[in-house]
């Protein structure tokens, strides 16, 4: 087995987000663990429209779940909120750290919450919190 390493490309100042037309199932047990079963997410990343940096997935109830490679965070009145695991998101490392530190809390989010956020972020353990805007 070969192991390779590559530097992470610089992160843009603001990521442009779009909503996927394909819902995730909030009761899918594979969404609770980091795994290589990522066909939906890999396909979304491979087909990102021009000018879009990340695809955001909603579940069957139209609740925000997660991005293809990120967790989603909305800032409201100075507090960060992120979807609960029951909405169908991965319990990512950055997400867990922000929840554990009290910097973020879980709230069910809808697409309108992304549009009406004081500030919007996506993030993961590699990139940290990245300012974002819903443009697609």
Automatic annotation (TrEMBL):
Keywords attached to this entry: Lyase
InterPro entries: Aminotrans_IV (IPR001544), Aminotransferase-like (IPR036038), BCAT-like_C (IPR043132)
Record's keyword annotation contains Metal-binding: no
SUPFAM superfamilies per the UniProt record, alphabetical: D-aminoacid aminotransferase-like PLP-dependent enzymes
Listed transmembrane segments: none
Pfam families in UniProt: Aminotran_4
GO MF terms, alphabetically ordered: lyase activity
Protein name, entry field: 4-amino-4-deoxychorismate lyase
